[in-house]
């Protein structure tokens, strides 16, 4: 069983233009698409498209258009569990899609303390019956207003006794909170890109803070999947073997790994 949590789900709107975007003029749209979004929702969609069963857990009201959008995908194996909340999820405003692409994200709907607790209870309930050591909880994306910045830290501690494996994919303040709690709150898998990895481990060798963070990263038996903008994605066990594993099919022109990856102190 794989259960994904998207604390800050969205409806992604993409518009296409038949020609260049004309500033200060009326622009006719070629097409408009609306899709359910948020990192955890996207993970569940990919899993279901690959023939795997997945449950996407999202905070959403019962009449939320997000739920209709997920249902309209018609993916066998994709289940959605909505935790009732008062507000709608964030909506990504239309982004002109031609030669130039721009993405604009709203901050998302806020969650109350009671709604945060309800999400935690629903996630635990979904995973409690599957504590066979083969189930995964995927905690993914940004956090909505009202959610504690260390929510992923709390969730790792909440789920660890259930015997499930835990993956976390986030950035900025939630990622910094996760780093501050290592190794006690270490998930089984993290998936930072290069910039997020620098936030997590420190950008270089020098500095006591960076060394302490990297020491915490190496405390345990879990690993990290590191993605780069060039397309390569090495699997790295920062607290295991001294060298990362680089897939043989690396994207042309991909940069070499950062020094603190290839040769940890």
Describe the protein:
Helices cover 28% and strands 21% of the residues. It is of the alpha/beta class. An eight-stranded mixed beta sheet has the order 5-4-1-7-8-9-10-11, with helices on both faces. Strands 3-2-6 form a three-stranded mixed beta sheet. Helix 4 (151-159) links the parallel strand 7 (136-140) and strand 8. Helix 5 runs parallel beside helix 6 (194-201). The protein is globular. It starts with a strand and ends with a helix.
Can you describe this structure in just a few lines?
The protein is α/β, with parallel strands linked by helices. Helix content is about 30%, strand content about 20%.
Defining key terms:
single chain, 8-stranded mixed beta sheet, 3-stranded mixed beta sheet, 265 residues, 28% helix, disordered C terminus, alpha/beta
Rounded to an integer in angstroms, the radius of gyration calculated over CA atoms is: 20 Å
Mean residue pLDDT: 76
Amino- and carboxy-terminal Cα gap:
37 Å
Major beta-sheet overview:
8 strands, mixed
Task: Please give the share of residues in helix.
Answer: 25-40%
Number of strands: 11
What's the SSE pattern? EEEHEHEEHEHEHEHHEEH
Strand order of the largest sheet: 5-4-1-7-8-9-10-11
Please work out how many helical segments DSSP would assign. Answer: 8
- Beta-strand content: 15-25%
Main structural class: alpha/beta
Taken from the alpha-carbon principal axes, the silhouette is globular
Please mark out the parts with pLDDT under 50 across 5 or more consecutive residues, or reply none. Answer: 205-209, 238-265
């Amino acid at each position: 069983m794989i259960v994904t949590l998207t604390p800050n789900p969205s409806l992604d709107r993409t518009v296409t233009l038949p020609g260049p975007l004309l500033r200060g003029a009326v622009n006719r749209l070629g097409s408009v698409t609306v899709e359910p979004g948020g990192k955890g929702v996207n993970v569940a969609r990919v899993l279901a498209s690959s023939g795997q069963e997945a449950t996407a857990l999202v905070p959403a009201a019962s009449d939320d258009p997000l739920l209709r959008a997920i249902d309209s995908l018609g993916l066998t194996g994709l289940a959605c569990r909505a935790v009732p909340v008062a507000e709608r999820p964030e909506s990504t405003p239309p982004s002109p899609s031609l030669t130039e692409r721009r993405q604009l994200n709203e901050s998302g709907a806020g969650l109350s303390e009671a709604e945060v607790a309800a999400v935690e209870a629903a996630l635990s309930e979904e995973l409690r019956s599957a504590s066979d050591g083969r189930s995964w909880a995927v905690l993914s994306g940004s956090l909505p207003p009202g959610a504690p910045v260390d929510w992923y830290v709390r969730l790792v501690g909440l789920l660890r006794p259930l015997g499930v494996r835990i993956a976390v994919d986030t950035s900025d303040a939630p990622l910094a909170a996760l780093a501050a709690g290592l190794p006690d709150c270490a998930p089984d898998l993290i998936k930072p890109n290069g910039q997020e990895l620098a936030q997590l481990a420190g950008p270089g060798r020098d500095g006591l803070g960076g060394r302490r963070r990297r020491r915490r990263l190496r405390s345990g038996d879990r690993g990290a999947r590191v993605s780069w903008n060039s397309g390569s994605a090495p699997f790295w066990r920062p607290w295991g073997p001294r060298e990362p594993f680089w897939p043989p099919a690396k994207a042309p022109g991909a940069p070499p790994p950062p020094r603190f990856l290839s040769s940890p102190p």
